[in-house]
Amino acid sequence: MTRTGMTSAGPDPARPDPTRILLADDHALVRRGVRLILDSEPDLHVVAEADNGAEAVARARAGDIDLAVLDIAMPRTTGLQAARELSRLRPDLRILFLTMYDNEQYFFEALRVGASGYVLKSVADRDLVDACHAAIRDEPFIYPGAVTTLVRDYLERVRLGDPLPPRAITDREEEVLKLVAEGHTSKEIADLLVISAKTVERHRANMLQKLGLKDRLELTRYAIRAGLIEP
Predict the structure, then answer these.
(1) What is the pLDDT of residues 159-174, one digit of tens each?
(2) Most CB contacts within 10 A, which of 71, 87, 114, 154?
(3) Backbone torsions φ then ψ of 80, nearest 5 degrees
(4) Would the pTM count as exceeding 0.85?
């Protein structure tokens, strides 16, 4: 028997389930702060965390994630690399970048790999929730400082099928470059990427030639400029 005026404690069928979010950032304090922002919203819920891109991909492959919020610069695998992989594995997954980089190069690469939005960490408390809601509605969210005309030019080129500016190195070469810059040996890289050490050396030689660089030190400097590792 229920008392007059009391309601059932069961779930409200009219209210949709919260959006399940994966949060990937290599700084625990950042994840904690972002989680507080997201979990304060009734329709958003952080259900998983990762401190590198490879872990983010592994966690999202399970299929119980609706939205991945990724940092760009992370160990082993960057957010951009993780997003490329997730776009292939989970085309239904929404992806947002939360980054400190107010950088045109990263912004356009984020669009290229399928991100729904790009939010700066400096204004996460203002923009992140709106960006998440936009992503779930399948709408783009671009941080206010982005140059509108550049966005329009990019989308128009995609619509017309015009070629985008080519990337200097391939996805696999970028994976090798990041691990080289992090100090891994050829054997360690081969084990991580499940390829042979000889293939690693071939990728390294190809990158040196393509980029006009001399040695590992110059490759590392290039990786820092490209945002693959933090200085």
Answers:
(1) 776 655 556 788 888 8
(2) 71
(3) -65, -40
(4) no
Beta bridge partners of 96: 69, 117
Residue 66 pairs with which residues in a beta bridge? Answer: none
Place of tokens 């939205």: 67
Write down the pLDDT at residue 166. Answer: 57
Cα–Cα distance between 16 and 11 in angstroms, integer? 10
Pairing of strands 141-142, 117-120: parallel
- Per residue in 119-145, is it b (16+ CB within 10 Å) or e — as a string? bbbeebeebbbebbebbbeeeebbbee
